[in-house]
Amino acid sequence: SMTDPMTGLNNRAGFELLAQQKIRIAKRYHHHIGIIFIDLDNLKHWNDEYGHAAGDAALRAVGQAISECIREVDICGRIGGDEFAVLGYVRNRGDLTTIITRVRNTLDHAKLTVPNAKSPIHDTPQISCGASVFFDPIDKSLDEMMAAADLEMYRDKKNRRS
Questions:
Q1: Residue 60 pLDDT > 90, yes or no?
Q2: What is the dihedral of CA 3, 54, 128, 130, to 10 degrees?
């Protein structure tokens, strides 16, 4: 299967398959590639405070926000637990910053309702994000690109806690 049943997005295998294809096209046509790593902050809080159904709803909300905020030609996937990735052709880092801003704004307005939640939900899902751009000629593997964006995401997470 190539689809994550929780969010309806690509799972890691589906994302990597499509990403490899996009990278080959980028190399052939001299495009720049941008990748964003997104992590749902405090999933444990969602599960502990409101129940696991609320944690699932928060994951679905992040997936939906990403889907709504990326371009039709971009690819996205839930690549594990509470982590998501987006990959697409970009002009510069600003293209990725725009997507991140849109996703955060969409989540700020998300209203999660979960039947049988432990308590009323007053939070909206918050995310940490990392973005990296790889300019033509692309000499990095998908794993290297993902590692660079992941490192940036952890920097964002650390800065958001401070």
A1: yes
A2: 0
